[in-house]
C-alpha cells in the first residue's frame, strides 16, 4: 500500500536541499536517509533520501543526484510516497494511518448513522474527518477524543459524541442578551441596561 509521507517545498540553499511538508507521524522512519520514495508526478522519481536535518523547525532533505538549487526547485510540490505493509499499524495504539480510517461508517453514541469517511483533512491545529452523508452533503468532524470517542477497525466504524450543531441544525444557542431585552411585566425597560 502506498502512503503520502511528505510534499516537497522550496529549495534551501544552493546544494540541492529542499524543505518538506511532513505528512506522517513517523518521519524518522519514513524520511530517513536511504529511504526510497515513489513520487507524484511519477516522472520526478523514485527519489532516494541522502541526508536529512532539521533547520529552524523545518525538515530539510537532500536526494541522491540532486546537487544544485535548480534541480531542487524542479521538485517543488512533488508528493513523496512510501510503500508500507497494509497490516502495519502505528506504534501508538491511539494513532491511525489515513487508509485505516477511510470508508469507516460514522455513527453517534446512540447508534444514529451519520455517514462514511471519504477524506482526512490534516490542518495545523487538528485533523478533520470529511464525512459524506446519505443525502450527499458533507459533515466535518474534528478528530479529537472529546468528539471521536471510539475507532473500531474490526466493525469498520467511528463512534462520535458531537456537540449540538456539529452534525445537525438543532444547536441550542443561549443568549443572555435575549433575556435582558425581554421586559418584565409592568416594568419600564432601560435601553442602556443600567438602572435608572
TrEMBL record:
One of its GO terms (biological process) is ribosomal small subunit biogenesis. Residues 99-166 form the Ribosome maturation factor RimM PRC barrel domain. It is found in: Cytoplasm. One of its GO terms (molecular function) is ribosome binding. Coiled coil: none annotated. Keywords: Chaperone, Cytoplasm, Ribosome biogenesis, rRNA processing. GO terms for cellular component: cytoplasm; ribosome. It comes from the Bacteria. Pfam families: PRC_RimM, RimM. The PRC barrel domain binds ribosomal protein uS19. PANTHER family: RIBOSOME MATURATION FACTOR RIMM. Binds ribosomal protein uS19. An accessory protein needed during the final step in the assembly of 30S ribosomal subunit, possibly for assembly of the head region. Essential for efficient processing of 16S rRNA. May be needed both before and after RbfA during the maturation of 16S rRNA. It has affinity for free ribosomal 30S subunits but not for 70S ribosomes. This is Ribosome maturation factor RimM.
Amino acid at each position: 500500500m502506498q502512503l503520502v509521507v511528505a510534499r516537497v517545498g522550496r529549495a534551501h540553499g544552493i546544494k540541492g536541499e529542499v524543505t518538506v511538508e511532513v505528512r506522517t507521524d513517523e518521519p524518522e522512519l519514513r524520511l530517513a536517509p536511504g529511504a526510497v520514495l515513489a513520487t507524484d508526478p511519477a516522472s520526478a522519481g523514485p527519489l532516494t533520501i541522502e541526508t536529512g536535518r532539521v533547520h529552524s523547525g523545518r525538515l530539510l532533505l537532500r536526494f541522491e543526484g540532486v546537487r544544485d538549487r535548480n534541480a531542487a526547485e524542479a521538485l517543488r510540490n512533488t508528493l513523496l510516497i512510501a510503500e508500507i505493509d497494509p497490516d502495519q499499524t502505528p506504534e501508538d495504539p491511539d494513532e491511525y494511518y489515513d487508509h485505516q480510517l477511510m470508508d469507516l461508517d460514522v455513527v453517534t453514541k446512540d447508534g444514529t448513522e451519520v455517514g462514511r469517511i471519504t477524506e482526512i483533512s490534516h490542518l495545523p491545529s487538528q485533523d478533520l474527518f470529511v464525512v459524506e452523508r446519505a443525502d450527499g452533503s458533507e459533515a466535518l468532524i474534528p478528530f479529537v477524543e472529546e468528539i471521536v470517542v471510539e475507532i473500531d477497525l474490526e466493525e469498520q466504524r467511528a463512534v462520535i459524541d458531537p456537540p449540538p450543531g456539529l452534525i445537525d441544525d438543532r444547536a441550542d444557542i443561549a443568549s443572555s442578551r435575549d433575556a435582558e431585552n425581554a421586559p418584565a411585566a409592568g416594568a419600564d425597560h432601560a435601553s442602556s441596561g443600567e438602572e435608572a
